[in-house]
Amino acid sequence: MKLIVFFNGWGMDNKAVDHLIIPKNYEVKIVNFPYDLDSSIFKNYEDIIAIGWSFGSYYLCKYLNYNNIKLDKIISINGVPETIGEFGIPERIFEATLKNLTSETLKEFYHNMGADSENLFSNRNFQEIKAELQYFKDNYSPEKNVFSKVFIGKKDRIIPALRQEKYYNGHNIEVSIIQCPHYPFNFFKSWLDIIGEN
Q: What predicted TM-score, i.e. pTM, was given to this entire model?
């Protein structure tokens, strides 16, 4: 049996990816904030592929670096190890988002990331989601890259595509530009579309 470990984005729950088809001989472990994952899970599978999306890409880097876990295939979708600043979200925009965050501006954020359908919105309450963003800010420091492959959404308005490209062009990494916004899971139908295996 093979395992896909997926580190989800800010404020999300399993609903963000529930519709993706799970391939035969694979299990999928979805990891949401606070991204607690027992590292012993990595001993139980013959093959493990790790995927991060958005802030989940950052937390996946942090997790693998901290636990010194090496995997052959680690994939980022619309995320970078340096999430705030030159290669990610401009600092002033991050600060303004946090300062002005309300349940209404959160809906605008979902719209800007391309997740307009109500069924994609997290079931978590607003205060939890805001606290998660504050936690990210308070504990943020750039991470060392771990990714071997990345997908960048050309229409990403959250972590601008050009900034992501600028980061990954400085590393020897396979980059695929896809025609999607920050929320990419209307573009993908199956986990196989992401991991690239038959």
A: 0.96
